[in-house]
Amino acid sequence: MKLTLVTGLTGLILLATIVELLRRRQLREKYGMLWLGLLFVVIPLSLFPRLLDGVADLLGVASGVSLVLFLGIVFLLLVCIHLSWEVSALEEETRTLAEDFALLRAEVEAERAERAEWTRRLDRTEMVSHDG
Amino acid sequence: MVNGKRLLIIIPALNEAASIGDVVGEIRGELPGVDVLVVDDGSTDHTAAVAAAAGARVARLPYNLGVGGAMRLGYRYAHDHDYDVAVQVDADGQHDPRYVPKLVDLLDDYDLVIGARFAGEGEYTVRGPRRWAMGMLSLVLSGLAGTTLTDTTSGFRAANRRMIEMFARWYPAEYLGDTVETLVHAARRGYRIQQVPVAMRRRMAGTPSHSPARAMIYLGRAVAVLTLALIRR
Ligand SMILES: Nc1nc2c(ncn2[C@@H]2O[C@H](COP(=O)(O)OP(=O)(O)OP(=O)(O)O)[C@@H](O)[C@H]2O)c(=O)[nH]1
Ligand SMILES: [Mg+2]
């Protein structure tokens, strides 16, 4: 009974945290939905840990609880893989941004140099005409 | 200039080289004196070059940000260059620029005017889950906005200065955020929203973006996005 209380409460606190983060726009929709979906599985399970015993039997796992542990680890692994994938995509994007920025800077600097060259030449011709 | 207002047409475009030239050309023909900004969102075809050749200003994003990302860039441009009105138009030729003055006319009394299908004009229809999703969206958003909105996902919208200022600061890049969430956000903050019936034309080229299988997913996501928009502040 005590255990059910602890696990159930943990689930509810997690749920509240995620909803609040989503409300404050600190979490993008796609991640928020993932965690919300997970909680809709976890909360019933934390209240009724025996729920998966039947499925565990079918798969040859000793008890529903170990099945939950196993599935939990698989899920976390998948999340890690997904995050690595996202980070790779982000790195590729910052790389493109840096390149774009360097190209723009090169263009601006070339233009500035050209303009400086022109004004220098103009000054010189003016000086010549004053002398002559 | 339309009705004495400085007007910017913003066109978000992804791989629309086949139609963007005609779209820009038609806008410049029908609405002389307006500026056209095409936001090329990492297209892999010649969208940017074709748009520039047709006389549009082109902003090229380094990689795809989605319609919402492209539109915030557009609104920032409008804000920085002090336009009175910004009108979003699709790059596929579905929006008839001859409706633009009608939309702009209403901007004295409203902040955001939507060119809407299903409001009497034209015979554009959808069926199945996509229709249910649109029905649900229009019911909830009409309630929030205090006026009938039949086409909440329309990409044909005109914004006045007040609205441009907000959109330049805040415009979601998430899925359906550019349409649904912006409406919820604007309605809640007291911006006045109105719609004008328009007839939509067929795509000029390219392939339509929805299939029957995607319609069901669309419904689910629409419900999720709307719920989220409603609990968000
Ligand atoms: N910037 C940007 N624009 C996009 C993107 N995807 C689509 N668009 C543009 O958004 C507009 C609307 O896209 P469509 O594919 O026509 O969407 P739709 O009008 O709802 O659907 P159909 O025309 O019926 O396929 C067009 O101008 C597209 O070029 C994107 O990822 N980024
Ligand atoms: Mg279209």
UniProtKB/TrEMBL annotation, chain A:
What name does the UniProt record give this protein? DUF2304 domain-containing protein
- So where does this one cross the membrane? 6-22, 34-52, 58-85
Enumerate the Pfam families for this protein.
Answer: DUF2304 (PF10066)
Keywords in alphabetical order: Membrane, Transmembrane, Transmembrane helix
Automatic annotation (TrEMBL), chain B:
Q: Taking every annotated instance into account, which residue ranges of this chain make up the domain Glycosyltransferase 2-like?
A: 9-164
CDD domains documented for this protein: DPM_DPG-synthase_like (cd04179)
Give the InterPro entries listed for this entry: Glyco_trans_2-like, Glycosyltransferase_2, Nucleotide-diphossugar_trans
Instruction: State which residue ranges cross the membrane.
Output: none
Is the keyword Hydrolase in the record? no
- Origin, by domain of life? Bacteria
Q: Which family does the entry's similarity section mention?
A: Belongs to the glycosyltransferase 2 family.
Q: What is this protein called?
A: Glycosyltransferase family 2 protein
Q: Which organism's genome codes for this protein?
A: Verrucosispora sioxanthis
Instruction: Output the lineage of the source organism.
Output: Bacteria, Bacillati, Actinomycetota, Actinomycetes, Micromonosporales
